[in-house]
Amino acid sequence: MKKLALVCVLSVGSIAFLQAQDSTATQSDRYQTPAQQEPKSEYSDKDAISATELPAAIQDKLKGQDYSGWMVSKAFKKEKDGKTMYAVELKNGSDTKKVKFDEQGNVLKEKDK
Q1: CATH architecture of the domain with residue range 47-112
Q2: What are the DSSP calls for 29-82, one per residue?
Q3: Where are the domains of the chain?
Q4: 3-state class of 113 per DSSP?
Q5: Tens digit of each residue's pLDDT (9 = 90 or more) over 22-74
Q6: In angstroms, how far is CA 74 from the centroid of its own chain?
């Protein structure tokens, strides 16, 4: 009789445990791979700014001959190791280019997309 009571208690406990698990996740959420989850933006660690908020040295550089015909589509500011850097995404028709600058307007990196 004690064994039967023990089995009943364990059964009720197991059912209660299973019911208490997270039921908010849908079946498809449980089987998502990391690639299917929300992708990280390549700019997630930077603050979006307008083109007019870029330092004058960068604005002057963008108005120069090297970037003639290119328009600023996105601009970002990032603080790293006590230094401020800027990433600017430029468009010229269907072409896209990403340029990273320091505060003085020096090009740190340029990449065609």
Answers
A1: Roll (3.10)
A2: HHT--TTTSPPPPTTTTSEEE-GGGS-HHHHHHHHSGGGTT-EEEEEEEEEETT
A3: 47-112
A4: coil
A5: 555 555 555 554 544 444 455 568 899 999 999 999 999 999 999 999 999 99
A6: 14
